[in-house]
Write a structure and sequence with these properties.
313 residues, alpha/beta, Spore Coat Polysaccharide Biosynthesis Protein SpsA, Chain A, 2 domains, 9-stranded mixed sheet, two-stranded antiparallel sheet, 23% strand, globular
Amino acid sequence: MNITKAIIPAAGLGTRFLPATKVIPKEMLNLLDKPVIQYSVEEGIKSGIKDFVIVTGKEKESIINHFGTNYELNYILKSRKKINILNGISKITSLASFINVRQSEPLGLGHAVWTARKTIGDEYVAVMLPDDVMCGNNPGLSQLIEVAKQEKCSVIAVQEVPKEEISSYGVIEVKKQFSPNLFQVKDLVEKPKAHEAPSCLAIVGRYVLSPDIFEVLEKTGTGAGGEIQLTNGIQSMIFSGEKVFAYKIKGERYDVGTPIGLLKASISLSLKNSQYSEEISKYLSNLEKDLIVMQGKSELLNSKRSDSGRIKI
């Protein structure tokens, strides 16, 4: 089994980031010094992916342009002897190829994956959601590919999440556990209530799927929100007798699909980057001192207030 193709769904409207995403795709918002979607591509390349199929919607041309060749920019950088910057920009385009597929309607993740079917053919394919940024010595996707080759079946990435957050995720029901990190999936439940969740193992944005997923999605009706859900398609594969595994991936994951998530990821990654860590650490240290002073003043003010809410003289 040779897995060299990945689908990156990037057709969402990015409403949580408005007004910024009125003209800029959320996948092109910066996380430190590069667009969010580039983290997925770099992870894919490190995992052996050679061909990326990026599924986009309207007003998303900048994503494709980012992974294309800008000859004018290359010429300017070369003429100004900024070879290091030029090499950094050109490296990705030299290591992989990129295909753009347009999703005609925003009908959900399952529909976005199905839209890419003609570019994949009869082979296993990775699906990478750019809202999830995975960091670690061993790329998250590489871990899934290893399991898929070993077990010769579809594999989805999971991580344990707190019970109070489980309703924000798709969750697996375990049929059999083979190791601390490897499970055979019995069922998938989309965004269950905390007390109804079959486990705390939440599905995160990495998949390796058999080519059967396309035929299944063709027949899958709309689910939550009137959309064709990828989880419903995988669920149908399980119910038809196909084996699907879940793997608890090792490494850190950042959910950058919300403004607060992107902000947290920026702070965390900047502290781990030698280019930024010293200055950011110093800034946060000074900020913490200011917050302590402000908190102290607030507590002092509150202690002077009477029951009527007036400050005692």
